Amino acid sequence: MSLAERDAKVIWHPYTQMQTAGLPVGIVRGDGACVYDEDGKEYIDAISSWWVNLYGHAHPYIAQKVAEQLRKLEHVIFAGFTHEPAVELAERLLTILPPNQKRVFYSDNGSTAVEVALKMCLQYWHNQGITKTKILAFKNAYHGDTFGAMAVSGRSVFTAAFDNMLFEVEFIDLPNQRNIDSLKSHISHLKSELACFIFEPLVQGSAGMIMYEAEWLEELIAYCKAENVLTVADEVFTGFGRTGKPFATNYITTLPDIYCLSKGLTGGTMAMGVTTCTSEIFNAFLSDDKMKTLFHGHSYTANPVSCAAALASMDLFTSAETQQNIDRIIARHQAFGEKIKAHSKVKDLRQTGTIIAIEWYTETSYLSPLRDRLYNYFLDAGIIMRPLGNIIYILPPYCITDTQLDYIYAKIEQALEDI
Ligand SMILES: *Cc1c(COP(=O)(O)O)cnc(C)c1O
Predict the structure, then answer these.
(1) Which CATH class is domain 73-318?
(2) What is the assigned CATH class of domain 3-58+321-418?
(3) Which pathway does the UniProt entry assign to this protein (predicted)?
C-alpha cells in the first residue's frame, strides 16, 4: 500500500473535506525549494509549505544544529527552569525586533502566540483595575484557529459553526486615504472600552494576500497609542523577511506594543510561537499579588530543540546570502508582474516583498471550483500552490533558484491561457 492509501484509512487532514478530497501526496524527502513524493516526482514548494519554510527543506545547517541540541537536552520544564537556547534566542530576537520590545514569551504556534498576546492585553488592564475588554481587528483578518484567535479573525466559512461562541470583536475596514478619518472617529467612540488593536501588518495572508499601505496602518497605530489602546502586530506570517524587510512593521516608525511570531521563526523546522512585549506591559504583571500573574503556558514552552532550530534560522536569516536572495526574488517577481498584469484574465496583481498574488477573473469565493482546477493544474506540473479561492500566490523559500522561479512563472502564464 502506498503512503497515501495508508493515510486515507487513519488520518483526518486540516481544512479538508475528507469525503471528496483526493488522496494526499505522500512526501518522502525535501531538498532546497523542492519536495519529492513516493514515486520520485519533484514538486517546487512555491508557498513554502504554508508559509513556514524560509531557507529550503531539510536544510543541512538547521539539521545539524537540531541534532546537536537533541543530544544535549531535548526538553525541560520551563517554569522554574531555563536553558541556553531559550535565553540566547530571546536575546537575539530582541536585537532584531524594534527597540521597544523587551520580553519574550514562548509557546508552540501562531495561534497560541496570538492567544498569549490577547491575554497580555486584557490582563494588562485588568491588573490595573481598568475595565477594557473589547478588541479591535480588521475585517477578513486571520489570526489562527484556536477560539481566541478565531474570535479576532473575520467571520467566514471557517468560523461559521462557532460564530455564536466567539467573543465580540469590533471589526474595521482596512485603512486607506479615504476612510482613515472615519476609522479614527469610530475608534474614538469606543476607546474607553478597547483593550487592544490586533492586525496583520501590510498583508492579510489568509484573506487572499490582501495588501494595504504602511502609511495608513501607521496612522491607526499612532491614533490607538494616543488613545491608550494597546497595539498587537501579528507578524506570524510577515516576519523574517517576507515583506522585504525583517518585519512588516519595519516599514513604519510608530512601534506596536506586542509582536506575535511563528511560521518562519524556525525556518519551518519545528513548531514554535513567540509573543514579545514592552517593559510597560511586562511591568503591569509584577506584583506581590499572585492574582496578577500571567497564568499561561504550554507543555512544550521554549522547547530547546525548537529554540535551536530558531537560532540556526536566525544565523541564516542574518546572512548576506539570505538578504541577496530576498532582493533577487523581489526583483524577479516585479519583472514577472509587469509582464502579465495586463492579461485579460488577471483581475488584480499585487506584490509586497517576496509575496506576489494574482487574482483570476471570476466570482470571488474560497469554495469556487476554479480553486480546485488551479490547485490540480499546478500540482500536475510539479508545483505546490494553494490558491485562496481565485487567488494564486507565490511566496517561495528564499533559496529558490532563478530556474525554478522561471518554471513557476511560465506555468502561470500557461495557466492563464489554459484555464
Ligand atoms: C498562520 C497564521 C496564524 C496562525 O498560526 P498557526 O501556527 O497556524 O496556528 C496567525 N496569524 C497569522 C497572520 C497567520 O498567518
Answers:
(1) alpha beta
(2) alpha beta
(3) Cofactor biosynthesis; biotin biosynthesis; 7,8-diaminononanoate from 8-amino-7-oxononanoate (SAM route): step 1/1
